[in-house]
Structures are given as C-alpha cells and as structure tokens.
Automatic annotation (TrEMBL):
Pfam families: HATPase_c_3
One GO term of the biological process aspect: double-strand break repair
Upper classification of the organism: Eukaryota, Metazoa, Chordata, Craniata, Vertebrata
InterPro entries per the UniProt record, alphabetical: HATPase_C_sf (IPR036890), SMCHD1 (IPR038892)
Protein name (Swiss-Prot/TrEMBL): SMHD1 protein
C-alpha cells in the first residue's frame, strides 16, 4: 500500500469501527469491506462501493407485499404502502427533542428522471451495516439484536393506540421494501448517520435483479 515505516494508519470497517487484535475475529469476515486510513475519522477522497449479498429470489422482494395490498378490503392500497415508508421515518426521528421533519414528495418531472416517491426525514440516519440490514427480507425492527445492528436500536414498542404517530402505523407489516416495490420498480436509500461524516447509499432495482 506504499505506507512508510514511520507512518501511522488504522484499518476500519465501513462503520468506522477500528480493527484491533481484540475484535479482529468478530469484525473481519469473508466479504467484508475495510478502509485503510490515517485516522478513524479521515475524510474519504472519493465514493466507495460495497457489495451486499443476500439470498432471497427477487420475487420474494418485489411481489411479497402484493397479496396484503390487494386484499385491503376494497380500499385504495397506496396510503398503506406510504404508511410503511413514513413508519420508518417516525421511528428514525423518535429521539429528536426539537422539530421532527418528515417530507413526502411526489416527483413527476420527466427531466429529472422517472416518476418517484421520496420520503425525507431528519432522523439519526443509518450506518452501512444498518442500511445492509434494511435490505434483508423479513428482518423485523423488533427482533434485530446483537451484531445484527438495527436502524431502530433502542426503540420500545409503545402502548397500542390505533393509527397514532408512534412508528406503529404500518397497516400490514410487510415492510418498507415490499411497499417500495408495490409502488414502483426500484428503491434508493440515502442516509447519513448523525455522528458520522459518511453518507451511505443503497439501491435495490428490479431491473438489476
């Protein structure tokens, strides 16, 4: 790597966790992406890519929400799909003591690309591992534990109040991925953890599958 003998460096995960003798076997596994940096918080000079592998057939992702949505008792299923996406933002902003900002944008300008639904919030953001976990099928925010780092860490299910804004508004519980693929053909998640300078982006596309 062209490192001088008197030069200090660190090896970290994409979550900026430094690799040490104590945690090597835990953090360094087949397929993991590592950074070689001068310091843990060094600014990256360019964007990096990390390959994510998961097993379900793409039909599992792009069609698994269809039954629930089409069985919505004759009602328009689109609000239920949007509720899944808003549910994520409500949970991500639950610890904010100031103003919680959640925006829903419907984009139809062909000059900017294909039509899209954008849900934007000022939540705490997700690390690369949390974003990876979001892509895993049927990984409930209430069962993610231990090393399977959750984007809902510390979230406590509130007392049941029908249709309240407490991050339990999702109607069918089929998850954000299924909601996305009910509405469209691809998902793009862009997230910056509140305590990090890194911005992480995940793209799931039926065309790519």
């Amino acid at each position: 790597f062209g490192i001088a003998t008197d030069e200090n460096f660190v090896i970290t995960t994409t979550n900026r966790k430094e690799i040490t003798e104590d945690n090597f076997s835990e953090l360094v596994q087949d397929g993991v992406t590592l950074y070689l940096l001068q310091s843990v918080d060094q600014m990256l000079l360019s964007a990096t890519k990390e390959r994510i592998d998961f097993l379900p057939h793409y039909d599992t992702l792009v069609k698994s929400g269809m039954y629930e949505y089409y069985a919505s008792e004759g009602q328009n299923p689109l609000p239920f799909a949007l509720a899944e996406l808003i549910d994520n933002s409500l949970s991500a902003t639950s610890r904010i003591t100031g103003i919680r900002s959640i925006q829903i944008k419907l984009l139809f300008d062909d000059s900017q690309g294909k039509p899209a639904v954008a849900v934007i919030d000022n939540g705490r953001g997700m690390t690369s591992k949390q974003l990876n976990n979001w892509a895993v099928y049927r990984l409930s925010k209430f069962t993610r534990q231990g090393d399977f780092e959750s984007d809902h860490s510390g979230y406590v299910r509130p007392l049941p109040v029908p249709r309240s804004l407490n991050s339990d508004i999702s109607y069918f519980g089929v998850g954000g991925k299924q909601a996305v693929f009910f509405v469209g053909q691809s998902a793009r998640m862009i997230s910056k953890p509140a305590d990090s300078q890194d911005v992480h982006e995940l793209v799931l596309s039926k065309e790519d599958f």
